[in-house]
Q: What sequence folds into this?
């Protein structure tokens, strides 16, 4: 048995370390460790709850809208603020734009190099690449001369001898299966996607001033004024800009991303047999289609246990707990306790080796992530969970997308429970959203047309309108999965704040019963041809789209001083 | 070895970039840097002929927002040329290699390019718990930063966390997090590009300046390039006329809000914040926070999470509130927590009057660090 360490796991957000045992050419055991901690929830204590969204937003600069959304929802729930219809529509727009852009970046810039051999692209025939590209898509950039240019550029880059971010990688690894023509096509689209994401996210600048870290969120609504008769507000001109950006996104997703996804997946169908993971899925649901607490959502919530698609249960947040047996935190009642986030107590107590170190003590505490559990069970969250719950709930568009992809790849529906299924679900969700997002622009325009210009619940802005103490929760489906914020407000100030985020669900360590988290479970059985080149481990880990900075948090209700530090 | 002019042209063509696109980009860079007319050609020539300098981008207590911002650099294809003009030998978010291979890439770059590489640092550096609050490959952020900064030709701290400690440094600073200037001593050339996140335009302009002139632009006492941080948001704000005329937003969505009135009473920190957002804007000049109706939160300023909060409480005693007044006297009158920021800037403003040499600027102790001694 060989013990290997992958640290840093690159092409992710944040700091992730995987330790794994390899036996008989496959992972026999794996440990997922988050190696960075900031303490944002502690920093929030005592502050104005209306400021919290900006603090929480900085948990992550990749999924830069998600914590802001969850935070304003939590505070609104606590103080009883009611955002007007335009705020719901504007939020749906920024949430969907985030998901679409984030998924594309993940596929091309964070994940593709696990499947695409850049060096192999150098030996591609541009004419053959063109034939391949035109056989799967109507995308305009598909001529032989276009691919010839890309190849020449790639060759020029390699010939200069400065490979930069492509240096030292696993090129030539036997696990790479794409023919050179497909590799060249993917490299071309890696570059095209880099341009596209930058253009498309101007949508966030229009609606939020800038990206990353949009600045138009408010407790009780949104800060972006709407007025068809003003240049300083969202008007018909901005509606036209949004429509143009969305039209471009539909083309890119349907003519580049989805064809590439299916083409690449067709060479890697054996990955439908690896990376299944825990088999439990949790979805809060997203995109409210009407106002009010019980409004229907475009993507439904639900819980699936043991891959039983015929037994979907509604989510009850009361069933969520967090454990710390293998996390660098201490509970007052010890490591056997499991606490609901509204009662969450956390005291960081690092017990790992002093840096620099070679190996973590995985028998003890080994991660800055806690272990969240639903009814005591680990749950996978994210696009696969959402597509499974929607599919099993009879969501028509999702059923059509999933059935279409499964048929095209000629695999059974059960292939979704895998590394490949995770990658595919992310793409299918992008296709779903890119066809839906325009509806919310239409809704915004319709509101504008009938003089519905309200963006905010001003009646609940002043803290004097709030109850003395208030508790609330805000739920959201982030690109990477189910996100919850819990807040307790006392005399207009934050008394307690807690987040349970997608990458905590997915990347968390073993729990008090030694049951592994979703990454850890999914890695077991993943083949590893060469322990010195753990490409296959990256495939399964990246299929979850790790976002580690999101995963780490702390709240300490007593406000204890956590670190004594002297600046050198 | 160097990309010849013709190679470069081929690369441009391969990206669908015309020569004109590139010249336009260079003109934009020259304008942003405040260079004289005609400098665009110099920028273009330098960018074409220079060897790709090695860049090592480290992420510590970060959110990757600055990395994402970098990926949004405007003039889309031309910004990619900037990527091509650097050899980014280590950047965890984009690099293909992982684990040992990634560490080997870093070690190789440090050895081969010692004294020549540019280090970019994103995120704060935690000093608590013997460095255990942030480790990469088993080493602490501090251990890695010490090694990388020691051999760097220059260190660029991108974003407010790396520049001034940022969010992790906010009270009660649970992990003992600090910016580069406080955590690592003895850096010869340190450039701070604060903001949350850094505006990609300012990062690419800074790099272009270096590639063009082999030197770094003039810095202020906080190590910030004057071209990007020399003017307050308030002074360059498109809504300034409304401030001077006493026209304010009073409630979210009211007529004044829809008409683009001044956001001062809603908490705008533009008068106490020095950055070029109003001119450069964000995301290919599409918009900026005040342009979308939300107050500035002062994200480029030291300790803004403590000094600029509550965000929706307006600054006290900004001269001119309600009537046209000389905003330049602001430093003398401001009070409370915000006063420190004003005064810091007031001093910076004064010191700029006679142009300061780079050496003087670099040796000045940032007020941010003095406060913690």
A:
């Amino acid at each position: 048995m060989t013990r290997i360490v992958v640290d840093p796991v690159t092409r992710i957000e944040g700091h992730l370390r995987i330790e794994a045992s390899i036996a008989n050419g496959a992972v026999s055991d794996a440990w997922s460790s988050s190696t960075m901690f900031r303490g944002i929830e502690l920093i929030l204590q005592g502050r104005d709850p209306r400021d919290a969204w900006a603090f929480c937003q900085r948990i992550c600069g990749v999924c830069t809208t998600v914590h802001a959304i969850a935070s304003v929802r939590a505070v609104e729930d606590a103080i009883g603020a009611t955002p007007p219809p335009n705020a719901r529509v504007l939020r749906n727009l920024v949430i969907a734009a985030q998901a679409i852009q984030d998924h594309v970046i993940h596929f091309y810039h964070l994940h593709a190099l696990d499947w695409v051999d850049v060096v192999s692209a150098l030996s591609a025939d541009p004419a053959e690449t063109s034939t391949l590209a035109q056989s799967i898509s109507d995308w305009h950039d598909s001529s032989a001369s276009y691919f010839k240019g890309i190849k020449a550029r790639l060759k020029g880059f390699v010939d200069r001898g400065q490979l930069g971010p492509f240096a030292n990688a696993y090129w030539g690894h036997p696990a790479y299966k794409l023919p050179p023509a497909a590799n060249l096509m993917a490299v071309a689209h890696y570059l095209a996607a880099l341009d596209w994401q930058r253009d498309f996210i101007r949508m966030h600048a229009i609606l939020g001033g800038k990206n990353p870290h949009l600045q138009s969120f408010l407790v009780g609504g949104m800060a972006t004024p709407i007025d068809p008769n003003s240049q300083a507000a969202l008007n018909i001109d901005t509606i036209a800009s949004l429509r143009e950006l969305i039209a471009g996104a539909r083309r890119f997703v349907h003519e580049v991303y989805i064809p590439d996804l299916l083409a690449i997946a067709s060479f890697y169908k054996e990955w439908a047999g690896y990376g299944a993971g825990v088999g439990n899925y949790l979805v809060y649901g997203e995109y409210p289609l009407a106002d009010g607490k019980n409004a229907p959502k475009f993507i439904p919530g639900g819980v699936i246990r043991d891959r039983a698609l015929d037994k979907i249960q509604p989510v009850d947040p009361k069933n969520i707990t967090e454990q710390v047996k293998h996390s660098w935190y201490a509970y007052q009642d010890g490591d056997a306790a499991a606490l609901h986030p509204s009662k969450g107590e956390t005291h960081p107590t690092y017990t790992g080796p002093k840096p620099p170190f070679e190996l973590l003590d995985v028998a003890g505490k080994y991660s800055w992530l806690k272990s969240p559990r639903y009814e005591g069970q680990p749950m996978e969250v994210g696009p696969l969970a959402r597509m499974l719950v929607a599919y099993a709930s009879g969501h028509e568009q999702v059923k059509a997308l999933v059935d279409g992809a499964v048929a095209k790849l000629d695999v059974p529906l059960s292939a979704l429970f895998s590394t490949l299924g995770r990658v595919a679900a992310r793409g299918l969700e992008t296709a779903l959203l890119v066809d839906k997002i325009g509806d919310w622009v239409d809704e915004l325009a319709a509101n504008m047309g009938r003089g519905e210009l309200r963006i905010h619940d001003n009646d609940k802005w002043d803290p004097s309108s709030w109850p003395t103490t208030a508790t609330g929760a805000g739920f959201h489906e982030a690109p990477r999965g189910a996100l919850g914020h819990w807040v307790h407000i006392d005399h207009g100030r934050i008394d307690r704040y807690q987040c349970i985020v997608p990458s905590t669900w997915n990347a968390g360590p073993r729990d008090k019963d030694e049951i592994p988290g979703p990454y850890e479970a999914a890695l077991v059985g993943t083949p590893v041809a060469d322990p010195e080149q753990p490409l296959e481990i990256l495939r399964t880990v990246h299929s979850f789209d790790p976002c580690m900075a999101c995963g780490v948090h702390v709240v300490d209700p007593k406000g204890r001083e956590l670190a004594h530090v002297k600046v050198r | 070895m160097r990309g010849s002019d013709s190679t470069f042209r081929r690369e441009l063509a391969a990206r669908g970039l015309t020569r004109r696109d590139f010249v336009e980009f260079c003109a934009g860079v020259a304008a942003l840097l405040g260079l004289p007319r005609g400098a665009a050609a110099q920028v273009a020539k330098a960018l074409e002929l220079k060897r790709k300098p090695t860049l090592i981008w480290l992420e510590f207590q970060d959110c990757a927002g600055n990395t994402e911002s970098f990926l949004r650099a405007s003039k889309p294809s031309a910004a990619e040329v900037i990527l091509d003009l650097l050899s980014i030998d280590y950047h965890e978010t984009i690099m293909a290699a992982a684990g040992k291979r990634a560490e080997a890439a870093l070690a190789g770059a440090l050895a081969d390019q010692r004294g020549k590489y540019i280090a970019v640092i994103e995120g704060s550096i935690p000093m608590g718990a013997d460095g255990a609050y942030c480790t990469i490959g088993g080493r602490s952020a501090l251990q890695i930063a010490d090694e990388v900064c020691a051999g760097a030709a220059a260190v660029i701290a991108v974003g407010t966390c790396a520049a001034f400690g940022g969010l992790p440094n906010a009270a009660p600073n649970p992990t003992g997090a600090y910016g580069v200037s406080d955590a690592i001593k003895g850096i010869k050339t340190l450039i701070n590009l604060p903001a949350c996140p850094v505006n990609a335009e300012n990062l690419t302009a800074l790099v272009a300046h270096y590639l063009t002139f082999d030197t770094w632009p003039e810095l202020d006492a906080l190590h910030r390039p004057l071209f990007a941080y020399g003017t307050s948001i308030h002074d360059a704000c498109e809504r300034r006329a409304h401030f001077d005329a006493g026209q304010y937003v009073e409630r979210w969505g009211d007529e004044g809000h829809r008409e683009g009135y001044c956001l001062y009473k809603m908490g705008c920190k533009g008068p106490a914040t020095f950055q070029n957002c109003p001119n450069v804007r964000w995301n290919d000049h599409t918009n900026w926070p005040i342009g979308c109706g939300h107050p500035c939160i002062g994200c480029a300023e030291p300790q803004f999470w403590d000094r600029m909060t509550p965000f929706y409480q307006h600054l006290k005693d900004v001269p001119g509130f309600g009537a046209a007044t000389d905003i330049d006297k602001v430093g003398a009158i401001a009070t409370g927590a915000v006063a420190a920021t004003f005064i810091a800037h007031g001093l910076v403003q004064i010191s700029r009057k006679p142009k300061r040499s780079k050496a003087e600027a670099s040796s000045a102790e940032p007020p941010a660090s003095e406060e913690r001694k």
